[in-house]
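S.,

Sequence below, as promised.
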Amino acid sequence: MQFKVPKFIEMESKIFGPLTFKQFLYVGGGAGVVYVLFKILPIVVSLPVIIAVAFFAWSLAFTQRDKYGKPFVEVTEAAFKFFVNTRLYTWKRTPKKIKKIESKYDIQKDPLLSIPKITTGKLSDKINNLEIQENDKIINDESSLLGNK
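The prediction came back faster than expected:
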């Protein structure tokens, strides 16, 4: 027996026309704040503030999650906490302790210490060359068995 699995379970349902409940609250709250500012303040002072509040409410409601990786509400909350909370930076300078390494071996006399090291880039190139040569050998062996030359 086959069951149908719902696909869009993370999607919020639209309650107020094309808006979800959260979007409706953001837009409605922004409209309420804009109305109060319009009634309280003179028009010259309130117009820039009204535009800023309206833009912020619209951004809260309709900014896509993909733009910041998180909902705009969480980004705004994190920014608010960053600016409001106190930050204490302390730096205590401590002198570095220099350790002298005494070697038992003399670098000039010990031949093992004078061997050049192979970097990973050169080593991986050598491995790739060996693999290519091995693949060519396998292909040549197969073609000689089949009688193709």
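Residues 21-84 form one domain.

Coffee later?
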